[in-house]
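Possible regression after last week's pipeline update?

I re-ran a chain I had predicted before the update to compare outputs. Posting the input and the new output here so someone can diff against the archived version. Not blocking, just want to make sure nothing changed silently.
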Amino acid sequence: MAELKITQIRSAIGTKPKQRGTLRALGLRGIGKSNVLTDKPEVQGMLARVPHLVTVEEIS
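New output (post-update):
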């Protein structure tokens, strides 16, 4: 399975509580922090909620 490197690029201050919770579930706690996750439908759904706060890179 492919892996995704997810990096937070914008602050969660001023966002809705569900969006802040989604960032925490993705393992992100601040601007510039990254996490590598397996590309699953659950992760894709979480990324769809916060596309304006993160960048996604595919790792082979």
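Follow-up from reviewer: compared with the archived run. The domain at 3-59 is CATH 3.30.1390.20 (Ribosomal Protein L30; Chain: A,). Marking as no regression found.
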